[in-house]
Amino acid sequence: MRHFFLVAVAMLFTAPAYADDAAKVREAMAQLAPGAEISSIKPSVVDGFYEVLIDMQVVYVSSDGKYLMQGRLIDIKAGIDLSEPTIAAAKAGIINKIEDKDTIIFAPENYQDTITVFTDIDCPYCVKFHREMDQYMAAGIRVRYLFFPRAGIGSGSHKKALAVWCADDQQAAMTLSKAGKPVSDKRCDNPIDSHMSLVSKLGVRGTPAVYTETGDQLGGYLPAAQVAARLKALK
């Protein structure tokens, strides 16, 4: 009981200080990056600094709002990246709001894991990734595809993505298109613009971009066996 009383007293005295500091930090960031989205401000493990998640990047700002440190914060002794969990949690919030109906899914009958993959029909490593789909299925991994035609809206890659999405059999059309074969050019309502918006929000820079349900990015292309190993390690 005494422990809970002390915690309550500590919170009573620190809450106003935190609110005051957070306001200073928010004001400083608004001046530095007007219009940027500040997702969270919380005390850092470094005394006198706050961890700020802004546009999917973590920065550290002094409590008086005068100083900013940019870059990952590493616990040297433990060898742990202290910035990554904040970024991953924010990305997981975005990834897990994506509805299955807005993706093209390849799934085994029974799956243990789901990965969300931003793909470009004309990306060589995306093609290589797709060639290993049977291995993903055998490993019990469900793959949700979103489109990121890197050449932009209206490009050849974008038109191929539209054709795949609008096909009667999206999975077959994806496989054909990844193999360099033509797919009937159809047009329909599609979520590709929203996929491109997510690319911006998540800071995706290349394809394939592979994300777990926990928001961890597994990098670009990795052999299916390595992806399965990484997913197992994350658990």
Give structural notes:
The radius of gyration is 22 Å and the shape is elongated. Helix 5 (156-166) packs antiparallel against helix 6 (170-178). Residues 1-13 have low confidence and may be disordered. The strands form three sheets. A four-stranded antiparallel sheet has the order 1-2-3-4, sandwiched between helices. With 235 residues, the protein is α+β, with helices and mostly antiparallel strands. The protein has two domains: 2-82, Disulphide bond isomerase, DsbC/G, N-terminal (Nuclear Transport Factor 2, Chain: A); 98-234, Glutaredoxin, CATH 3.40.30. It has helices spanning 2-32, 84-95, 124-131, 133-138, 156-166, 170-178, 192-202, 224-234, and strands spanning 38-43, 49-54, 57-62, 68-70, 74-75, 80-81, 104-106, 113-119, 141-147, 209-212.
Keywords for this structure?
235 residues; Nuclear Transport Factor 2, Chain: A; 8 helices; 4-stranded antiparallel β-sheet; alpha+beta; 4-stranded mixed β-sheet; Glutaredoxin
Q: Mind telling me the C-alpha Rg? A: 22 Å
Order of helices and strands: HEEEEEEHEEHHEHHHEH
Largest sheet: 4 strands, antiparallel
Main CATH class of the largest domain: Alpha Beta
Strand order of the largest sheet: 1-2-3-4
Low-confidence stretches: 1-13
User: Whole-number average pLDDT?
Assistant: 90
Number of helices: 8
In the CATH scheme, what's the topology name of the largest domain? Glutaredoxin
Q: Count every beta strand, where a strand is a DSSP E run of 2 or more residues.
A: 10
CATH superfamily of the largest domain: Glutaredoxin
Structural class: alpha+beta
Beta-strand portion reads 15-25%
In CATH, the architecture of the largest domain is: 3-Layer(aba) Sandwich
